[in-house]
Write a structure and sequence with these properties.
The chain has 313 residues and is α/β, with parallel strands linked by helices. The protein has one domain: 4-Layer Sandwich (Purple Acid Phosphatase, chain A, domain 2). The chain has eight helices and 18 strands. The longest helix has 15 residues.
């Protein structure tokens, strides 16, 4: 199992996103570097959340996000990064559907097809992904998606989605073994019951702890990622990503959604085991493409993480 060397605090003083390019000091510009403890391997994690059917950029109407976002520009940026890096993961934290007439007309078909063409490795389910009913989610996913939907706290046993989701998935990138799990927000009171039918809701903290332990301890994953559609934080005691990070073990990174939170850098939380868990989120509508570069080394004791969310423009 690999370890990660840490210079997150040090890096925070240097990393500046300017015109879609991250300006880094020379000692960080190499894709791979060697230390006295051996060669490292780099993993680049790209992530989105709450894209909400934003197929085209925002209209040039003078609004806050005019001209930003859009599938074509995001796909071009993803392809550029894939040409530059060897080990790239592309993940989504839910709410693929709803927000533009594309969803109203095509019912989610276009979103699933385009995410498949962009090569998403995995996604999780958001509350708005039920807006076409659970039948609509099942129809579009089965017909048009070539990536898995990962969720461990929705019980689909008595629904049409039974057997279509995974509680976790392990993805190999080079020599690295990456474990991915997913959790979703409580649907009752947020989504009309007629849309999610008999979908059961299980405690996300308990279920995430269970899956993370399996991935880290049983399968010896080098890194465990939770795709979460719980929301970053709340003024009440509603379970959120920050609570999830604090109350779990074995999760290295939480990629969140639901609250449309723009974060310049990941929030560092001490988890139940006294170790660091990172929490990040990339706003909404595909305005940003989240990016974390993580360097792994066999014998190092610390983490090495570089974060640079990039505006899609």
């Amino acid at each position: 199992m690999y370890n990660r060397r840490s210079f997150l605090t040090r890096l925070g003083k240097y990393a500046v996103v300017a015109g879609g390019t991250t300006m880094l000091p020379s000692w960080l510009q190499a894709q791979e570097f060697a230390t006295e403890e051996g060669k490292t391997h780099k993993l680049t994690i790209l992530h989105t959340n709450d894209v909400h059917s934003r197929i085209e950029p925002f209209p040039m109407d003078g609004g806050k996000y005019a001209g930003k976002g859009g599938i074509a520009k995001r796909a071009a940026l993803i392809n550029k990064i894939r040409k530059e890096e060897d080990n790239v993961l592309l993940l989504d934290a839910g709410d693929m559907f709803q927000g533009t007439p594309y969803f109203n007309y095509f019912g989610g078909e276009l979103e699933m097809k385009l995410m498949s063409k962009m090569g998403y490795d995995a996604g999780t389910i958001g509350n708005h992904d039920f807006d076409g009913g659970i039948e609509g989610l099942e129809k579009q996913f089965k017909a048009h998606a070539n990536f898995p939907l990962i969720n461990c706290n929705y019980d689909f046993t008595d629904t049409i989605m039974n057997g279509l989701t995974l509680p976790h998935k392990i993805i190999k990138k080079g020599p690295l073994k990456i474990g991915i799990l997913g959790v979703g927000v409580e649907l009752d009171g947020l989504v009309p019951a007629v849309l999610f039918k008999k979908t059961g809701y299980l405690n996300p903290v308990e279920q995430a702890n269970k899956q993370a332990a399996i991935l880290k301890n049983d399968y010896k994953c080098d890194y465990v990622i939770c795709l979460s559609h719980l929301g970053y934080t709340y003024s009440s005691d509603i379970v959120s990503d920050l609570i999830m990070a604090k109350e779990t073990e074995s999760i290295d990174l939480i990629i969140g959604g639901h609250t449309h939170t723009f974060l310049d850098k990941p929030t560092v939380v001490e988890n139940k085991a006294g170790e660091e868990t990172l929490v990040t989120q990339a706003g909404w509508a595909g305005i940003l493409l989240g990016r974390l570069d993580i360097y792994f080394e066999r014998s190092a004791k610390d983490k090495c993480i570089q974060c640079k969310n990039t505006t899609v423009e």
